Prior knowledge:
Radius of gyration: 19 Å
Strand content: 5-15%
Structural class: alpha+beta
Helix content: 40-55%
Number of helices: 13
Oligomer: single chain
Amino acid sequence: MKYSYDGLKTVLTDFNSFNIKEILECGQCFRFTKIFDNEYEIIAHGRKLRIIQHSDRVEFFNAGKQDFEDIWINYFDLNTDYDMIKQYLWDSDIVLRDAIEYAPGIRILNQDPWEALISFIISQNNRIPMIKQVIKNICARYGGDGCFFPQAEQLSNAAACDLRALKTGFRDKYIIDAIQKVLSGEIDLYAMNGYETDRARDILMSIKGVGPKVADCVLLFSLGRREVFPTDVWVKRVMEHFYFGGNKTGIKNIQSLAYEKYGRFAGYAQQYLFYYAREFGIGTK
DNA sequence: GCCCAGGCACTCA
DNA sequence: TGAGTGCCTGGG
């Protein structure tokens, strides 16, 4: 990886495994807007970033050298060797090869834990365009002038009916519970980096409306736990398709198989599989 | 009008 | 302990 700042933008060159479309549209984040093919606006960590991908370089607008080093390198997981990970997964199981080849530019973003928690609570029993809209509504109402994702403090005065007016639906009470647990200090998301994964998952699941799937998404996408394998309906379908002859099976069977086959890289495998499954509608016919 | 979507809580055997 | 059911909302 090489990068330089030209006074207007930071330009990333000599990179591998980076495709902005695949990164953003593999289901891990919600605050982005497509401007053109290979051009997106992303809002994260209190910044608005415009990003344009060319064949030989990626341009980060509104990102000075300091922001790039302090925020975006970590956010885009640029210090992780994806070639090594893909090679490991490629060797570990033949089923993954098509999925990796189909979207070799996927990366797992390192998002803010609070934003990830609320976003994935909203995601349950919901569609992606609707999830994006609800998050946008919350940011517009509580995120200040920049419409950034509001911290728990900024949401401290929100009542369930206020949230419901922003189209959260029945998830309003879940968001309220998350706000209360964080504000009271009962849960400190930013202290969970040092916890064992199982302990962190249990703590997350003590929040109303947070089950295994939402907890695993928070662990994978914002707490760096790349060994977890969030198993939503798409991942369940694709796993049943590839490993269980298209027959229904339980989440536990799927996850234990994933840990067995993909090991500490199960989270990455999940992303390749999810993207592949959705693009081809695997298991829906 | 009905069905369903990137789950979860709740109820009841 | 596991299966069944209802849930906001809006687009097909």
